[in-house]
Amino acid sequence: MSNAPEKNREKIPEAVLLQAVSWRVRLGSGEALDSERDACSQWRSADPLHELAWQRFERMESPLDTVARRAPRLAHSTLNQTDAEIRRLNRRAALKTMGGGVLGAFAVGLVGYDTGLLKYMSADYSSGSKPAQYNLDDKSQVWLNTSSAIEWESGAAIRSLVLTKGEMHLTSAADPRPMQVSVPQGQLISRDSRFFVRNGDDHTILQVVEGGVQVQPSADIEPFAVKAGEAYRLTGAGSLALDSKMFDYSGWIDGVLSARSMPLGALLEELSRYRVGFLRCDPALRDHQVSGVFQLHDIDTILKILARSAGAELSYTTRWWATIQLPG
Predict the structure, then answer these.
(1) d(CA 35, CA 38)
(2) Domains of the chain, residue spans
(3) Is there a contact between 165 and 127 (Cβ–Cβ < 8 Å)?
(4) pLDDT confidence of residue 105
(5) pTM of the model as a whole
(6) Can you list the residues of the chain whose pLDDT is less than 70?
(7) Residue 327: how many CA atoms within 13 Å on its side-chain side?
């Protein structure tokens, strides 16, 4: 896997990020006027931070572009309202508006915007539509899966990393200072370990590959150790041991997805990380167990294989919506 672009060395004000969001949707609608393209170029050249925000969008396959392509008329007719709303609202109100009110049908494409996009754009390290690898200044290595972001600080007494979005695989270099990974449910402490972390909507998944990780929950729960070969689901209420042999959470580093007796529904959820759109299956097939090692470079071929193994059919409502369903 090739190294990703360098660290995002400069923070971008949120107001600038919101302006970049508006321009991206406007120009991606397919109905932008030449005058609007010229105005965007002037905005980009007016301030180095404007261009920096734009370039960071270029590094990701933005959901804003996808939505604008699917609904160009809606994009064109609502953007003027959106621009006016953003100018007069504070950050919290603006995010709420963009997520549901003024943009209406854009809500699907902007899922996660108010909880992840701004953090993604202002993170120290981030990935776009493909996984990325970074070497940290303490000689640790971190792999970020698609659309993931972290904040990193190497202090005198502790190394601190915050997974703000998505998932990562970390190889923590040997160092007298402990490595502290912050997640919504608490802290993950290690020294020279290798482990995977996923930041879910209401949970965190931890899978240790080598060494060990000490979990220090933020709630009133006793700390506990996770050893190599173990995986846990962490929530605000506690932790749940997972079957680490059923699914290799870090397989994407090698471009594969490896499963053993995994429910089809759960497998499709994992595959959806690597394909734009929606993957669904017949409710009767959700618990159908699947085993295999699948190459992630061709998701549609994987879908055909899964449908065949289940004695089902693969159908496309649109190019973005694929369903594995029983025949008849």
Answers:
(1) 5
(2) 14-122, 127-242, 255-325
(3) no
(4) 32
(5) 0.69
(6) 1-11, 14, 25, 28-30, 57-122
(7) 6
CA dist 134 and 140 (Å) reads: 9
Beta bridge partners of 199: 166, 204
Per-residue tokens: 209: 């590959």
Backbone angles phi, psi at 89, to 5 degrees: -100, 155
- Classify 123 in phi/psi space as left (phi over 0), alpha (psi -120 to 50) or beta: beta
188 phi, psi to nearest 5 deg = -115, 115
Query: CATH: 2.60.120.1440, 3.40.50.300, 3.30.70.2570, 1.10.10.60. Which one for 127-242?
Result: 2.60.120.1440
Q: What is the CATH number of domain 255-325?
A: 3.55.50.30
pLDDT in tens, 46-83: 988 888 888 776 665 444 444 444 444 443 443 444 44
CA dist., res. 204 & res. 238, Å (int): 11
Q: Which H or E run contains 121?
A: helix 118-122
The helix/strand/coil state of 160 is: strand
Residue 72, classed as helix, strand or coil, is helix
3-state secondary structure (DSSP) of residue 259: strand
